[in-house]
Write a structure and sequence with these properties.
globular, 4-stranded antiparallel sheet, mainly beta
Length: about 130
Amino acid sequence: QAQLEESGGGWVQDGGSLRLSCAASGQSFSRYVMGWFRQAPGKEREFVMSITPNGGRTKVADSVKGRFTISRDRFKDTVDLQMNSLKPEDTAVYYCTAALHTSDYYSYYRRSSIYDYWGQGTRVTVSS
């Protein structure tokens, strides 16, 4: 069965960097957008970044623009999130996710409901 597994979370000081990785398995994700959401304590899950199957187009939340980058390896079915200049407000559980690449994605990429697969999440804590 298809699975997404995150790694790379941890603790970092304000201004530090972390790199999250997600490995997909169980099926090919070559037709899927892959991305990241996060959920902070007491808040709703929110979109962070996503990338199209061929890596040509990305979407990014305003809150992380200029600090986070996303990349994927089409052949290994992995997606990475490089997080720089981390802030305490970036503290959250980060979830890897995948959505079938359809026209709906471009209108609704911020909505968790369009994503078909989710990882278990990896915790990121940024201390001030």
